[in-house]
């Protein structure tokens, strides 16, 4: 199988399989990159955060374990025991982590709003899917009901037709009764 046909067949896969193939490809790529990085020369140990104080925010935040405090111009180790740095270390409005242009307070608010929007979107999607499924079931139930009524009507028509044929045969051979509720007489 050629490379081009393999790529085409992957593109034709269903969405779930395609997503799993992409995820596996990223994992394999990540493993390859990490093994390649491990075989190369090791990077020098990062400079401790305290040595980067009184420099710049960008230089401090090159190390992801550092936290920059704007008013004191201090580069400090991120307090790992706490999720958020306490005010005694640096106020949230003045703390920078990851990027210099977003303070911690705005970062928290933004992430909370985004998480809320994602949760609400997922709930709306789930509710819409459930509603569509119920609507689909109602349509399917109505279709089955129509088919059942049509089948019963056909059976009733056939039963009536058979009864008429049987009555004709009884009349032909003189077996027909004038009153179906009368007793059979031995003549």
UniProtKB/TrEMBL annotation:
Where do the PSI domain residues begin and end? Answer: 48-91
Kindly state which keywords UniProt assigns to this record, in alphabetical order. Answer: Glycoprotein, Membrane, Signal, Transmembrane, Transmembrane helix
User: GO cellular-component terms in the record?
Assistant: cytoplasm; nucleus
Biological processes, Gene Ontology terms: protein import into nucleus
Q: Where is the signal peptide?
A: 1-37
According to the UniProt entry, which residue ranges have a biased composition of type Basic and acidic residues? Answer: 158-171
Transmembrane segments annotated in the record for this chain: 106-130
Question: What are the boundaries of the region Disordered?
Answer: 141-187
The record's PANTHER family line, in alphabetical order, gives: PROTEIN CBG20567, PTTG1-INTERACTING PROTEIN B
| Protein name per the record | Pituitary tumor-transforming gene 1 protein-interacting protein-like
Species whose genome carries this gene: Seriola lalandi dorsalis
